[in-house]
Amino acid sequence: MSRRSRYLSVVRTVAWRNIHSAVRSPALLLPALIFPLFFYMAFAGGLSTVGDLPGFDYYDYNAFQFVFVLLQSAAFGGVFIGFSIGADFDSGFTRRLFLASGDRSAVIAGFAAAALIRTAFVWALVFAIALATGLEIAGDGVELSGLIGLALIINVAFFLFAAGMMTRMRTLQAAPAMQLPVFFILMTAPVYVPRDLLQGWIETVSKFNPMTAIIEAGRSLMAGDPFHVALAFAAAAGLAAVLLLWAASGLRRAEAAG
Amino acid sequence: MSAAAATAPLPRQVRYLAWRSVIRTARQPIIIVPPLVFPLFLLAINASGLDAASSIPGFPADSYVAFALAFPFVQGSIFATNTAGTNVAEDIGSGFFNRLSLTPMRGPSLLAGQLSGVLLIGTIQAVAFLAAGLAAGVEIESGVLGALVLLVLSLFICAAFGTIGLFVGLRTGSGEGVQGLFPLMFILLFLSSAVLPRDLIGQDWFRTVATINPVSYLIEGLRSLIITGWDTEALALAFGIAVAIFVAGLAGSTLALRERLVRT
Protein backbone atom coordinates (compact mmCIF):
# COMPACT_ATOMS: atom_id res chain seq x y z
CA MET A 1 0.00 0.00 0.00
CA SER A 2 1.45 3.37 -1.03
CA ARG A 3 1.89 6.20 1.46
CA ARG A 4 -0.90 8.14 -0.21
CA SER A 5 -3.29 5.21 0.01
CA ARG A 6 -2.48 4.74 3.70
CA TYR A 7 -3.11 8.45 4.30
CA LEU A 8 -6.45 8.34 2.51
CA SER A 9 -7.42 5.19 4.33
CA VAL A 10 -6.92 6.91 7.72
CA VAL A 11 -8.87 9.97 6.52
CA ARG A 12 -11.73 7.76 5.35
CA THR A 13 -11.79 5.71 8.54
CA VAL A 14 -11.80 8.70 10.89
CA ALA A 15 -14.46 10.47 8.83
CA TRP A 16 -16.61 7.34 8.61
CA ARG A 17 -16.37 6.72 12.36
CA ASN A 18 -17.44 10.30 13.08
CA ILE A 19 -20.35 10.26 10.63
CA HIS A 20 -21.40 6.84 11.92
CA SER A 21 -21.43 8.16 15.51
CA ALA A 22 -23.50 11.17 14.44
CA VAL A 23 -26.03 8.99 12.62
CA ARG A 24 -26.32 6.62 15.59
CA SER A 25 -26.62 9.50 18.09
CA PRO A 26 -28.72 12.19 16.41
CA ALA A 27 -28.24 14.32 19.54
CA LEU A 28 -24.77 15.08 18.16
CA LEU A 29 -26.23 16.49 14.95
CA LEU A 30 -29.21 18.27 16.47
CA PRO A 31 -27.43 21.39 17.82
CA ALA A 32 -25.75 21.94 14.43
CA LEU A 33 -29.15 21.62 12.76
CA ILE A 34 -31.36 23.43 15.25
CA PHE A 35 -29.20 26.49 15.80
CA PRO A 36 -29.13 27.75 12.18
CA LEU A 37 -32.85 27.10 11.78
CA PHE A 38 -33.61 28.82 15.02
CA PHE A 39 -31.41 31.84 14.25
CA TYR A 40 -32.99 32.09 10.81
CA MET A 41 -36.46 32.04 12.36
CA ALA A 42 -35.56 34.48 15.12
CA PHE A 43 -33.66 36.99 12.98
CA ALA A 44 -35.64 36.85 9.74
CA GLY A 45 -38.98 36.56 11.56
CA GLY A 46 -38.48 38.84 14.52
CA LEU A 47 -36.57 41.59 12.78
CA SER A 48 -38.23 41.68 9.37
CA THR A 49 -39.41 45.28 10.00
CA VAL A 50 -35.75 46.31 10.07
CA GLY A 51 -35.73 45.60 6.32
CA ASP A 52 -38.04 48.62 5.83
CA LEU A 53 -35.58 51.08 7.37
CA PRO A 54 -34.47 53.99 5.17
CA GLY A 55 -31.09 53.09 3.66
CA PHE A 56 -31.71 49.35 3.89
CA ASP A 57 -31.49 48.59 0.18
CA TYR A 58 -31.29 44.78 0.14
CA TYR A 59 -34.03 43.03 -1.85
CA ASP A 60 -35.34 40.71 0.89
CA TYR A 61 -34.71 40.55 4.65
CA ASN A 62 -35.12 36.74 4.73
CA ALA A 63 -32.36 36.38 2.14
CA PHE A 64 -30.24 38.97 3.98
CA GLN A 65 -30.39 36.88 7.15
CA PHE A 66 -30.15 33.55 5.37
CA VAL A 67 -26.65 34.34 4.11
CA PHE A 68 -25.51 35.15 7.62
CA VAL A 69 -27.10 31.98 8.98
CA LEU A 70 -25.50 29.88 6.22
CA LEU A 71 -22.04 31.25 6.99
CA GLN A 72 -22.66 30.96 10.71
CA SER A 73 -23.65 27.30 10.32
CA ALA A 74 -20.51 26.79 8.23
CA ALA A 75 -18.37 28.22 11.03
CA PHE A 76 -20.12 26.33 13.82
CA GLY A 77 -20.21 23.16 11.71
CA GLY A 78 -16.42 23.30 11.81
CA VAL A 79 -16.35 24.13 15.50
CA PHE A 80 -18.77 21.37 16.54
CA ILE A 81 -16.37 18.74 15.19
CA GLY A 82 -13.88 20.16 17.67
CA PHE A 83 -16.16 18.70 20.37
CA SER A 84 -15.62 15.24 18.85
CA ILE A 85 -11.85 15.75 18.85
CA GLY A 86 -11.99 16.92 22.49
CA ALA A 87 -14.19 14.00 23.54
CA ASP A 88 -11.85 11.55 21.78
CA PHE A 89 -8.89 13.09 23.61
CA ASP A 90 -10.78 12.73 26.91
CA SER A 91 -11.42 9.05 26.25
CA GLY A 92 -7.88 8.46 25.00
CA PHE A 93 -9.12 7.43 21.56
CA THR A 94 -7.33 10.22 19.66
CA ARG A 95 -4.03 9.17 21.22
CA ARG A 96 -4.60 5.61 20.05
CA LEU A 97 -5.46 6.92 16.57
CA PHE A 98 -2.24 8.93 16.56
CA LEU A 99 -0.28 5.81 17.45
CA ALA A 100 -1.96 3.81 14.72
CA SER A 101 -1.51 6.26 11.86
CA GLY A 102 1.79 6.95 10.15
CA ASP A 103 0.98 10.57 9.38
CA ARG A 104 -1.06 12.07 12.22
CA SER A 105 -2.34 14.93 10.06
CA ALA A 106 -4.50 12.27 8.38
CA VAL A 107 -6.49 11.96 11.63
CA ILE A 108 -7.17 15.72 11.59
CA ALA A 109 -7.98 15.56 7.86
CA GLY A 110 -10.48 12.79 8.64
CA PHE A 111 -12.24 15.00 11.16
CA ALA A 112 -12.21 17.82 8.55
CA ALA A 113 -13.89 15.54 6.00
CA ALA A 114 -16.53 14.64 8.60
CA ALA A 115 -17.10 18.35 9.32
CA LEU A 116 -17.71 19.02 5.61
CA ILE A 117 -20.12 16.10 5.23
CA ARG A 118 -22.07 16.95 8.38
CA THR A 119 -22.27 20.64 7.42
CA ALA A 120 -23.42 19.79 3.89
CA PHE A 121 -26.24 17.72 5.41
CA VAL A 122 -27.24 20.64 7.65
CA TRP A 123 -27.18 23.06 4.70
CA ALA A 124 -29.39 20.79 2.60
CA LEU A 125 -32.03 20.77 5.33
CA VAL A 126 -31.70 24.48 6.13
CA PHE A 127 -31.93 25.40 2.43
CA ALA A 128 -34.98 23.17 1.96
CA ILE A 129 -36.79 24.65 4.95
CA ALA A 130 -35.88 28.23 4.02
CA LEU A 131 -37.10 27.72 0.43
CA ALA A 132 -40.29 26.07 1.67
CA THR A 133 -40.96 29.06 3.93
CA GLY A 134 -40.54 31.69 1.23
CA LEU A 135 -36.82 32.41 0.80
CA GLU A 136 -36.23 34.14 -2.56
CA ILE A 137 -32.87 33.59 -4.27
CA ALA A 138 -32.14 36.36 -6.76
CA GLY A 139 -28.72 35.08 -7.84
CA ASP A 140 -28.18 32.48 -10.57
CA GLY A 141 -26.60 29.04 -10.23
CA VAL A 142 -23.03 30.32 -10.62
CA GLU A 143 -23.53 33.01 -7.99
CA LEU A 144 -25.14 30.53 -5.62
CA SER A 145 -22.18 28.17 -6.17
CA GLY A 146 -19.89 31.07 -5.25
CA LEU A 147 -21.81 31.53 -2.00
CA ILE A 148 -21.56 27.81 -1.21
CA GLY A 149 -17.85 27.90 -2.08
CA LEU A 150 -17.29 30.73 0.37
CA ALA A 151 -19.20 28.84 3.04
CA LEU A 152 -17.10 25.71 2.42
CA ILE A 153 -13.86 27.65 2.94
CA ILE A 154 -15.30 29.13 6.15
CA ASN A 155 -16.25 25.64 7.32
CA VAL A 156 -12.68 24.41 6.76
CA ALA A 157 -11.16 27.56 8.32
CA PHE A 158 -13.18 27.30 11.53
CA PHE A 159 -12.61 23.56 11.68
CA LEU A 160 -8.86 24.29 11.60
CA PHE A 161 -9.35 26.78 14.42
CA ALA A 162 -11.21 24.15 16.48
CA ALA A 163 -8.60 21.49 15.67
CA GLY A 164 -5.84 23.88 16.76
CA MET A 165 -7.64 24.59 20.03
CA MET A 166 -8.40 20.96 20.80
CA THR A 167 -4.94 19.65 19.95
CA ARG A 168 -3.60 22.22 22.41
CA MET A 169 -6.16 21.79 25.20
CA ARG A 170 -6.89 18.08 24.59
CA THR A 171 -10.13 18.12 26.61
CA LEU A 172 -13.79 18.76 25.90
CA GLN A 173 -13.83 21.20 28.81
CA ALA A 174 -12.13 23.71 26.49
CA ALA A 175 -15.32 23.89 24.39
CA PRO A 176 -16.53 27.30 25.70
CA ALA A 177 -13.08 28.80 25.07
CA MET A 178 -13.37 27.54 21.51
CA GLN A 179 -16.87 28.91 20.88
CA LEU A 180 -16.52 32.41 22.29
CA PRO A 181 -13.98 33.78 19.75
CA VAL A 182 -16.05 32.33 16.90
CA PHE A 183 -19.18 33.93 18.27
CA PHE A 184 -17.32 37.23 18.65
CA ILE A 185 -15.94 37.33 15.10
CA LEU A 186 -19.34 36.41 13.64
CA MET A 187 -21.43 38.82 15.68
CA THR A 188 -19.17 41.83 15.15
CA ALA A 189 -19.80 41.65 11.40
CA PRO A 190 -22.91 43.36 9.97
CA VAL A 191 -25.46 40.80 11.21
CA TYR A 192 -28.76 42.67 11.43
CA VAL A 193 -28.31 45.61 9.04
CA PRO A 194 -25.89 46.58 6.25
CA ARG A 195 -22.64 48.23 7.34
CA ASP A 196 -23.89 51.70 6.31
CA LEU A 197 -26.56 51.49 9.00
CA LEU A 198 -24.26 50.33 11.79
CA GLN A 199 -23.50 52.82 14.52
CA GLY A 200 -21.13 53.04 17.47
CA TRP A 201 -18.20 50.74 18.23
CA ILE A 202 -19.45 47.90 16.06
CA GLU A 203 -19.22 50.09 12.96
CA THR A 204 -15.47 50.46 13.59
CA VAL A 205 -14.87 46.83 14.53
CA SER A 206 -16.80 45.53 11.52
CA LYS A 207 -14.47 47.47 9.16
CA PHE A 208 -11.50 45.37 10.31
CA ASN A 209 -13.35 42.08 10.74
CA PRO A 210 -12.56 39.70 7.84
CA MET A 211 -16.04 38.17 8.20
CA THR A 212 -17.53 41.51 7.07
CA ALA A 213 -16.14 41.15 3.54
CA ILE A 214 -17.21 37.50 3.44
CA ILE A 215 -20.78 38.16 4.61
CA GLU A 216 -21.19 41.19 2.36
CA ALA A 217 -19.94 39.28 -0.69
CA GLY A 218 -22.19 36.35 0.22
CA ARG A 219 -25.20 38.64 0.36
CA SER A 220 -24.26 40.22 -2.97
CA LEU A 221 -24.04 36.75 -4.57
CA MET A 222 -27.42 35.83 -3.12
CA ALA A 223 -28.85 39.04 -4.60
CA GLY A 224 -27.31 38.35 -8.03
CA ASP A 225 -25.23 41.51 -7.79
CA PRO A 226 -21.65 40.32 -7.05
CA PHE A 227 -19.60 42.77 -5.00
CA HIS A 228 -16.01 42.36 -3.74
CA VAL A 229 -16.22 38.61 -4.30
CA ALA A 230 -12.47 38.25 -4.92
CA LEU A 231 -11.77 40.14 -1.69
CA ALA A 232 -14.10 37.82 0.20
CA PHE A 233 -12.47 34.69 -1.20
CA ALA A 234 -9.04 36.16 -0.40
CA ALA A 235 -10.17 36.94 3.17
CA ALA A 236 -11.63 33.44 3.63
CA ALA A 237 -8.60 31.73 2.11
CA GLY A 238 -6.24 33.93 4.18
CA LEU A 239 -8.14 33.02 7.33
CA ALA A 240 -7.94 29.32 6.41
CA ALA A 241 -4.20 29.57 5.66
CA VAL A 242 -3.44 31.23 9.02
CA LEU A 243 -5.60 28.71 10.85
CA LEU A 244 -3.90 25.83 8.99
CA LEU A 245 -0.62 26.93 10.59
CA TRP A 246 -2.44 27.15 13.94
CA ALA A 247 -3.81 23.61 13.57
CA ALA A 248 -0.44 22.23 12.36
CA SER A 249 1.40 23.67 15.36
CA GLY A 250 -1.35 22.33 17.64
CA LEU A 251 -0.89 18.88 16.16
CA ARG A 252 2.86 19.06 16.81
CA ARG A 253 2.12 19.96 20.44
CA ALA A 254 -0.28 17.05 20.78
CA GLU A 255 2.34 14.72 19.29
CA ALA A 256 4.97 16.05 21.65
CA ALA A 257 2.63 15.59 24.62
CA GLY A 258 2.30 11.89 23.69
CA MET B 1 -22.97 18.52 56.74
CA SER B 2 -22.85 17.86 60.47
CA ALA B 3 -25.42 15.85 62.43
CA ALA B 4 -26.27 19.02 64.34
CA ALA B 5 -27.20 20.72 61.07
CA ALA B 6 -29.40 17.83 60.03
CA THR B 7 -31.39 17.80 63.24
CA ALA B 8 -31.69 21.60 63.39
CA PRO B 9 -35.03 23.39 62.89
CA LEU B 10 -36.06 24.18 59.30
CA PRO B 11 -34.81 27.82 59.16
CA ARG B 12 -31.39 26.75 60.41
CA GLN B 13 -31.28 23.86 57.93
CA VAL B 14 -32.05 26.33 55.16
CA ARG B 15 -29.28 28.60 56.43
CA TYR B 16 -26.69 25.80 56.46
CA LEU B 17 -27.55 24.63 52.95
CA ALA B 18 -27.86 28.19 51.63
CA TRP B 19 -24.42 29.01 52.99
CA ARG B 20 -23.00 25.89 51.33
CA SER B 21 -24.64 26.86 48.02
CA VAL B 22 -23.38 30.46 48.22
CA ILE B 23 -19.81 29.40 49.08
CA ARG B 24 -19.83 26.78 46.37
CA THR B 25 -20.99 29.35 43.79
CA ALA B 26 -18.54 32.03 44.94
CA ARG B 27 -15.65 29.53 44.66
CA GLN B 28 -16.35 28.80 41.01
CA PRO B 29 -15.69 31.86 38.83
CA ILE B 30 -16.64 29.74 35.79
CA ILE B 31 -20.24 29.76 37.13
CA ILE B 32 -20.30 33.52 37.76
CA VAL B 33 -18.33 34.96 34.84
CA PRO B 34 -20.13 33.63 31.72
CA PRO B 35 -23.63 34.62 32.97
CA LEU B 36 -22.21 38.08 33.55
CA VAL B 37 -20.05 38.56 30.47
CA PHE B 38 -22.13 36.86 27.79
CA PRO B 39 -25.35 38.92 28.25
CA LEU B 40 -23.31 42.14 28.45
CA PHE B 41 -21.49 41.20 25.26
CA LEU B 42 -24.76 40.47 23.47
CA LEU B 43 -26.23 43.74 24.80
CA ALA B 44 -23.24 45.66 23.43
CA ILE B 45 -23.60 43.98 20.02
CA ASN B 46 -27.37 44.36 19.79
CA ALA B 47 -27.38 47.93 21.08
CA SER B 48 -24.86 48.97 18.47
CA GLY B 49 -25.89 46.66 15.63
CA LEU B 50 -29.59 47.39 15.95
CA ASP B 51 -29.41 51.06 16.88
CA ALA B 52 -30.91 51.89 13.49
CA ALA B 53 -34.08 50.07 14.57
CA SER B 54 -34.89 52.96 16.91
CA SER B 55 -35.77 54.97 13.76
CA ILE B 56 -38.66 52.62 12.95
CA PRO B 57 -41.88 54.66 13.27
CA GLY B 58 -43.59 53.80 16.55
CA PHE B 59 -40.42 52.52 18.25
CA PRO B 60 -41.00 53.14 21.95
CA ALA B 61 -37.54 54.45 22.96
CA ASP B 62 -35.07 57.04 21.74
CA SER B 63 -32.11 54.70 21.97
CA TYR B 64 -31.93 50.99 21.29
CA VAL B 65 -29.69 50.35 24.29
CA ALA B 66 -32.46 51.53 26.67
CA PHE B 67 -34.93 49.26 24.88
CA ALA B 68 -32.52 46.29 24.89
CA LEU B 69 -31.41 46.63 28.52
CA ALA B 70 -34.14 44.27 29.76
CA PHE B 71 -32.74 41.49 27.56
CA PRO B 72 -29.60 40.68 29.63
CA PHE B 73 -31.65 40.49 32.84
CA VAL B 74 -33.73 37.66 31.40
CA GLN B 75 -30.80 36.08 29.57
CA GLY B 76 -28.83 36.07 32.83
CA SER B 77 -31.78 34.44 34.58
CA ILE B 78 -31.74 31.69 31.98
CA PHE B 79 -28.18 30.95 33.02
CA ALA B 80 -29.64 30.52 36.52
CA THR B 81 -31.55 27.51 35.21
CA ASN B 82 -28.28 25.89 34.28
CA THR B 83 -26.53 26.79 37.51
CA ALA B 84 -29.30 25.45 39.74
CA GLY B 85 -29.80 22.30 37.69
CA THR B 86 -26.11 21.53 37.28
CA ASN B 87 -25.43 22.02 41.01
CA VAL B 88 -28.20 19.67 42.01
CA ALA B 89 -27.18 17.11 39.36
CA GLU B 90 -23.61 17.26 40.68
CA ASP B 91 -24.89 16.66 44.21
CA ILE B 92 -26.80 13.63 42.99
CA GLY B 93 -23.83 12.36 40.98
CA SER B 94 -21.37 12.82 43.84
CA GLY B 95 -23.61 10.99 46.29
CA PHE B 96 -24.21 14.09 48.46
CA PHE B 97 -27.96 13.62 48.06
CA ASN B 98 -27.78 9.99 49.10
CA ARG B 99 -25.89 10.93 52.23
CA LEU B 100 -28.29 13.78 52.94
CA SER B 101 -31.30 11.51 52.55
CA LEU B 102 -29.99 9.45 55.46
CA THR B 103 -30.31 12.49 57.73
CA PRO B 104 -33.50 14.15 59.02
CA MET B 105 -32.82 17.11 56.68
CA ARG B 106 -36.15 18.27 55.18
CA GLY B 107 -36.94 18.68 51.49
CA PRO B 108 -37.92 22.39 51.53
CA SER B 109 -34.62 23.30 53.16
CA LEU B 110 -32.77 21.46 50.40
CA LEU B 111 -34.60 23.36 47.67
CA ALA B 112 -34.32 26.74 49.36
CA GLY B 113 -30.64 26.12 50.04
CA GLN B 114 -29.93 25.20 46.41
CA LEU B 115 -31.69 28.34 45.18
CA SER B 116 -29.57 30.62 47.37
CA GLY B 117 -26.48 30.29 45.20
CA VAL B 118 -28.59 31.09 42.16
CA LEU B 119 -29.97 34.20 43.83
CA LEU B 120 -26.42 35.29 44.70
CA ILE B 121 -25.49 35.16 41.01
CA GLY B 122 -28.79 36.83 40.13
CA THR B 123 -28.05 39.74 42.45
CA ILE B 124 -24.53 40.24 41.09
CA GLN B 125 -25.86 40.06 37.54
CA ALA B 126 -28.75 42.46 38.09
CA VAL B 127 -26.53 45.10 39.71
CA ALA B 128 -23.90 44.71 36.96
CA PHE B 129 -26.47 44.98 34.14
CA LEU B 130 -28.11 48.01 35.69
CA ALA B 131 -24.72 49.65 36.22
CA ALA B 132 -23.75 48.90 32.60
CA GLY B 133 -27.00 50.41 31.36
CA LEU B 134 -26.56 53.56 33.44
CA ALA B 135 -22.94 53.84 32.27
CA ALA B 136 -24.17 53.60 28.66
CA GLY B 137 -26.41 56.61 29.29
CA VAL B 138 -29.74 54.89 29.90
CA GLU B 139 -32.12 56.83 32.11
CA ILE B 140 -34.53 54.76 34.18
CA GLU B 141 -37.91 56.39 33.53
CA SER B 142 -39.42 55.05 36.76
CA GLY B 143 -36.64 56.63 38.85
CA VAL B 144 -34.68 55.23 41.77
CA LEU B 145 -37.67 53.33 43.15
CA GLY B 146 -38.21 51.85 39.70
CA ALA B 147 -34.57 50.70 39.61
CA LEU B 148 -35.13 48.90 42.92
CA VAL B 149 -38.30 47.26 41.58
CA LEU B 150 -36.29 46.27 38.49
CA LEU B 151 -33.77 44.47 40.71
CA VAL B 152 -36.53 42.76 42.69
CA LEU B 153 -38.35 41.64 39.54
CA SER B 154 -35.14 40.30 38.03
CA LEU B 155 -34.53 38.26 41.22
CA PHE B 156 -38.09 36.88 40.99
CA ILE B 157 -37.38 35.84 37.39
CA CYS B 158 -34.04 34.35 38.40
CA ALA B 159 -35.67 32.30 41.17
CA ALA B 160 -38.44 31.22 38.78
CA PHE B 161 -35.99 29.89 36.16
CA GLY B 162 -33.85 28.46 38.96
CA THR B 163 -36.73 26.21 40.05
CA ILE B 164 -37.02 24.89 36.48
CA GLY B 165 -33.31 24.01 36.60
CA LEU B 166 -33.83 22.34 39.99
CA PHE B 167 -36.73 20.32 38.61
CA VAL B 168 -34.77 19.08 35.59
CA GLY B 169 -31.65 18.44 37.70
CA LEU B 170 -33.62 16.44 40.27
CA ARG B 171 -35.63 14.61 37.65
CA THR B 172 -32.70 13.57 35.43
CA GLY B 173 -29.85 13.62 37.96
CA SER B 174 -27.62 14.42 35.02
CA GLY B 175 -25.63 17.53 34.15
CA GLU B 176 -26.02 16.72 30.46
CA GLY B 177 -29.81 16.64 30.88
CA VAL B 178 -29.69 20.13 32.37
CA GLN B 179 -27.40 21.38 29.59
CA GLY B 180 -29.94 20.10 27.07
CA LEU B 181 -32.46 22.49 28.56
CA PHE B 182 -30.30 25.52 27.75
CA PRO B 183 -30.98 25.71 23.97
CA LEU B 184 -34.72 25.40 24.64
CA MET B 185 -34.62 28.29 27.11
CA PHE B 186 -32.55 30.31 24.65
CA ILE B 187 -35.12 29.68 21.92
CA LEU B 188 -37.86 30.93 24.25
CA LEU B 189 -35.83 34.09 24.80
CA PHE B 190 -35.28 34.81 21.12
CA LEU B 191 -38.83 33.95 20.04
CA SER B 192 -40.15 36.73 22.25
CA SER B 193 -40.46 40.51 22.05
CA ALA B 194 -36.79 40.76 23.13
CA VAL B 195 -35.47 42.54 20.05
CA LEU B 196 -38.53 44.46 18.82
CA PRO B 197 -41.84 45.44 20.45
CA ARG B 198 -44.63 43.01 19.55
CA ASP B 199 -46.60 45.59 17.56
CA LEU B 200 -43.57 46.24 15.34
CA ILE B 201 -42.87 42.59 14.54
CA GLY B 202 -43.63 42.29 10.83
CA GLN B 203 -44.18 38.53 10.53
CA ASP B 204 -47.61 37.44 11.81
CA TRP B 205 -46.45 33.97 12.93
CA PHE B 206 -43.59 35.45 14.94
CA ARG B 207 -45.90 38.00 16.58
CA THR B 208 -48.28 35.18 17.54
CA VAL B 209 -45.45 33.09 19.02
CA ALA B 210 -44.11 36.14 20.90
CA THR B 211 -47.60 36.85 22.26
CA ILE B 212 -48.01 33.28 23.52
CA ASN B 213 -44.46 33.15 24.89
CA PRO B 214 -44.44 34.07 28.62
CA VAL B 215 -40.85 35.33 28.32
CA SER B 216 -42.20 38.31 26.31
CA TYR B 217 -44.15 39.50 29.37
CA LEU B 218 -41.16 39.11 31.68
CA ILE B 219 -39.08 41.25 29.34
CA GLU B 220 -41.88 43.80 28.83
CA GLY B 221 -42.30 44.19 32.60
CA LEU B 222 -38.61 44.90 33.08
CA ARG B 223 -38.52 47.12 30.02
CA SER B 224 -41.53 49.16 31.13
CA LEU B 225 -39.61 50.33 34.19
CA ILE B 226 -36.72 51.44 31.99
CA ILE B 227 -38.42 53.16 29.08
CA THR B 228 -42.04 53.84 30.10
CA GLY B 229 -42.19 54.56 33.82
CA TRP B 230 -44.83 52.89 35.98
CA ASP B 231 -46.93 50.57 33.81
CA THR B 232 -49.10 48.64 36.26
CA GLU B 233 -50.37 46.13 33.71
CA ALA B 234 -46.91 45.23 32.39
CA LEU B 235 -45.56 44.90 35.94
CA ALA B 236 -48.51 42.82 37.17
CA LEU B 237 -48.11 40.47 34.21
CA ALA B 238 -44.34 40.15 34.72
CA PHE B 239 -44.57 39.52 38.47
CA GLY B 240 -47.57 37.23 37.98
CA ILE B 241 -45.82 35.10 35.36
CA ALA B 242 -42.59 34.95 37.37
CA VAL B 243 -44.54 33.80 40.43
CA ALA B 244 -46.51 31.27 38.36
CA ILE B 245 -43.29 29.78 36.90
CA PHE B 246 -41.76 29.75 40.39
CA VAL B 247 -44.76 27.95 41.91
CA ALA B 248 -44.93 25.42 39.06
CA GLY B 249 -41.15 24.85 39.16
CA LEU B 250 -41.18 24.48 42.93
CA ALA B 251 -44.09 22.04 42.85
CA GLY B 252 -42.32 19.97 40.19
CA SER B 253 -39.04 20.11 42.13
CA THR B 254 -40.75 19.06 45.37
CA LEU B 255 -42.30 16.04 43.66
CA ALA B 256 -39.03 15.17 41.92
CA LEU B 257 -37.16 15.52 45.21
CA ARG B 258 -39.63 13.26 46.98
CA GLU B 259 -39.25 10.67 44.23
CA ARG B 260 -35.45 11.02 44.26
CA LEU B 261 -35.29 10.51 48.04
CA VAL B 262 -37.57 7.46 47.81
CA ARG B 263 -35.35 6.00 45.10
CA THR B 264 -32.33 6.24 47.38
Could you give a short account of the major beta sheet of chain B? none
The chain-level structural class of chain A is mainly alpha
Q: Overall pLDDT of chain B, averaged?
A: 87
Fraction in beta strands of chain B: under 5%
Shape of chain B: elongated
Count of folded domains of chain A: 1
Strand content of chain A: under 5%
N-to-C order of helices and strands of chain A: HHHHHHHHHH
Largest sheet of chain A: none
Indicate the radius of gyration of chain B in whole angstroms.
19 Å
How far apart are the first and last residues' alpha carbons of chain A, in Å?
A: 27 Å
Q: How far is the first residue's CA from the last residue's CA of chain B?
A: 18 Å
Mean pLDDT, all residues of chain A: 91
Molecular structure report:
The complex is a heterodimer of chains A (258) and B (264). With 258 residues, chain A is mostly helical. Chain A has ten helices and no strands. The two termini of chain A are 27 Å apart. Chain B is mainly α. In chain B, helix 5 packs parallel to helix 8. Chain B starts with a helix and ends with a helix. The chains are: A mainly alpha (258), B mainly alpha (264). At the A-B interface, helix 2, helix 7 and helix 8 of A face helix 3, helix 9 and helix 10 of B.
Question: Secondary-structure blueprint of this entry?
Answer:
The complex is a heterodimer of chains A (258) and B (264).
Chain A: H1 3-24, H2 30-46, H3 61-91, H4 93-100, H5 105-132, H6 141-169, H7 175-187, H8 201-208, H9 210-222, H10 229-257
Helix pairs in contact in A: 1-5, 2-3, 2-5, 3-5, 3-6, 3-7, 3-9, 5-6, 6-9, 6-10, 9-10
Chain B: H1 3-6, H2 10-26, H3 29-49, H4 64-68, H5 70-94, H6 96-101, H7 107-135, H8 143-172, H9 175-190, H10 204-212, H11 214-228, H12 232-263
